[in-house]
Design a protein that fits this description.
Layout: H1 2-20, H2 24-40, H3 48-60, H4 71-78, H5 87-116, H6 119-123, H7 128-132, H8 140-147, H9 150-166, H10 174-194, H11 198-208, H12 214-232, H13 239-253
């Protein structure tokens, strides 16, 4: 019991370090080992999200996870140290992101193709049973509202299959990729709220976030910074500083392969 508690606490500490971006080059492989061991001892309560995390952690061992929005990045900027870009590390980073995207495509496409072989999915009634089930339904009134109209059930059933099968092919175009992200995030939001699986949905949504471009994340960062200044005040950076920061960021990102746009 003492060993298990020690292992469990260590896994929690590693997960916290991973989330805040502290020494991720060393923390990520350790987190994979500790999490996999715990997950293997609790298979009855595991779901697809737990196994998906294990696969993602293998890929992310080779990614530079603390480059932005992390404790390591904050410490580096505070010390005014410029992180040296190594070509081999950049190649591994890009390869790991490509593997994450490939894994997502395989998961969605395989799930969609498996569904279309079932009679209930072909008839458009498959989603009625998990939505109306007491095992999944968190809000009975919402489940009743959705299943009250047969056409709504048919639409949800067919859209689920279409989104999963079409997802890999929609990534080749900038516009269709954005549509695919909105659709798949909406699907996971529905799974989290209607079926009561927030952890599974959160895991898959976090993996989908890899497809959001760096430009979009920087836009979100600038918007949040503006909201912070409006609410809490603070010195607004000069236009020259903003331009210099963007130039430096562009120089750092030129070595990265744009997995998404």
């Amino acid at each position: 019991m003492g060993l298990f508690v020690t292992w469990y606490v260590a896994a929690i500490l590693l997960a916290v370090a991973f989330m805040i971006g502290w020494k991720t080059r060393f923390v990520t492989p350790l987190l994979f080992v500790f999490y996999t061991a715990i997950n293997a001892q609790n298979t009855p309560i595991s779901d697809g999200g737990n196994y998906f995390i294990r696969i993602m952690l293998i890929y992310l061992i080779f990614a530079d996870l603390s480059k932005r929005w992390s404790l390591d990045s904050w410490l580096t900027n505070r010390k005014a140290k410029k992180k040296r870009e190594r070509e081999f590390a950049t190649i591994l980073h890009n390869l790991s992101l490509c593997l994450v995207v490939a894994q997502l495509c395989i998961v969605y496409f395989e799930a969609g193709m498996y569904k279309v072989q079932g009679a209930l999915w072909q008839e458009g009634t498959a989603m009625y049973y998990p939505i109306s089930s007491e095992a999944y339904g968190v809000f009975p009134w919402l489940s009743s509202l959705i299943t009250w109209n047969a056409w709504v059930v048919v639409l949800i059933t067919y859209m689920t299959v279409i989104i999963q099968i079409a997802f890999p092919f929609m990534l080749f175009n900038k516009l269709s990729r954005r549509i695919a992200l909105v659709l798949v995030l909406g699907m996971h939001l529905g799974i989290a709220v209607v079926m009561g699986l927030p952890f599974f949905s959160g895991i898959m949504a976090s993996a989908d976030a890899v497809l959001v471009s760096s430009t979009s994340w920087l836009t979100v960062q600038a918007w949040l910074a503006g909201c912070w200044r409006k609410v809490f005040g603070g010195r607004r950076p000069m236009p020259e500083q903003i331009q210099t920061g963007e130039t430096k960021q562009d120089e750092l990102e030129t070595a990265k392969i744009p997995v998404s746009a």
